[in-house]
Specification:
21 strands, globular, 213 residues
Length: 213
């Protein structure tokens, strides 16, 4: 059965099996999946189940957009196993099929010790980097090898990219022009980075990438 796993800052908060033809997500309490956050619209997006396993996602005219694998959804798109959906600072992993596991829809939980160790182990085997997409350095790949790396121009904008136990995070450090991640302003508190996320920093577009070391 298809399922969605939502997380914030590497902590799993919702695990939902898609049983209905339409599963709505938004800030309003009448949605099937409720994410109570100002970046989430009242009726943000919908997941449509066709047959037993075909799932489509569609943005419902949200203010801040719904992103699939780093690009903003413009129309209904079919999901594939392990696709990553970003809504504000929420990250949602789509899993095409699974055994029933006893989770209840919208149940809240944290990663158990075994899952956390597995996630940390998998992360340790990946090499992070930024690929410059614009300007004279387009095509250049800059590895992220330190626990905390800084990028940008102090006169415009500087970010810190930190390597934490459960993933990579980007935060705005200084500068008058806030950077954006997939079109959303990056705060000083940090936002999780996922493969193919696009960071706009001081007039330069950079794609975050995770590869096998």
């Amino acid at each position: 059965m298809p399922q969605l796993i939502a997380s914030v800052e590497g902590v799993e908060i919702k695990h939902v099996h898609l049983r209905k033809d339409r599963t709505t997500l938004g800030r309003r309490p009448y949605n099937d999946i409720v994410l109570n956050n100002p970046l989430v619209s009242g009726e943000h997006c919908v997941f449509e189940l066709h047959g037993l396993a075909d799932v489509y996602v569609e943005d419902l005219g949200s203010t801040n957009g719904t992103y699939l694998n780093g690009h903003m959804i413009k129309s209904r798109e079919q999901l594939h196993d392990n696709d990553a959906i970003a809504i504000g600072n929420f990250r949602i992993q789509y899993i095409a099929a699974s055994e029933e596991s006893g989770f209840h829809q919208t149940a809240e939980m944290k990663l158990d010790a075994h899952s956390a160790a597995a996630a940390a182990s998998a992360l340790a085997s990946l090499q992070a980097s930024f690929k410059v997409l614009s300007g004279s350095s387009a095509g250049l790949e800059v590895p992220v090898v330190k626990a905390v790396s800084t990028f940008g121009n102090p006169a415009v904008s500087v970010v810190a990219v930190s390597h934490r136990r459960y993933g990579f995070y980007v935060a705005h450090l200084t500068g008058p022009i806030p950077p954006t991640l997939n079109g959303l302003a990056v705060s000083g508190e940090g936002m999780p980075l996922m493969h193919n996320d696009v960071l706009e920093l001081a007039g330069t577009s950079m794609q975050f990438m995770l590869k096998d070391a």
